[in-house]
Amino acid sequence: MxxxxxxxxxxxxxxxxxxxxxxxxxxxxxxxxxxxxxxxxTNEIARRCDxxxxxxxxxxxxxxxxxxxxxxxxxxxxxxxxxxxxxSDEERGYRRVERASDLDRMLASLxxxxxxxxxxxxxxxxxxxxxxxxxGVSQMQVSRLLRHAIEKLRDMAEPGAGQTxxxxxxxxxxx
Length: 175
Known about the structure:
The chain is an all-alpha fold. The chain folds into 2 domains: about 1-85, Arc Repressor Mutant, subunit A; about 100-175, Orthogonal Bundle (Arc Repressor Mutant, subunit A). It has 9 helices and no strands.
């Protein structure tokens, strides 16, 4: 029965040798606490268990796999914020990747000409006059196409926004 709980009672799979060391470290901590009247140091525990201090630290870390902490438990007495609130769900990198993916998806719905104009304007940092010369069209056409492409992207990014059916918008879609 003891072996059953030793092998299957762990939340995370830990090698048997480390499980056994963790059990003996817990026992030694209890013994030394009673003998010394204080919490024993890592070196004192290591000497009693006849292992290295690193082995004791590994065993103590493995103990948390046997009795995992709740993410809802506050981090300490001074703070009432649960551990789950401290998990990094606000990583900027994820948000940047999601935005880039969304932008790629939205850009794919634009025409080749609209994508080219947006790239020339925002990546190559060309002004409308330079884009017009590059494409062989008027600056006014570039202005309209640029505004139309940006409005399309805005509409895709904010569902429900810009669906007023204004005459200016309908006129721009014909260009």
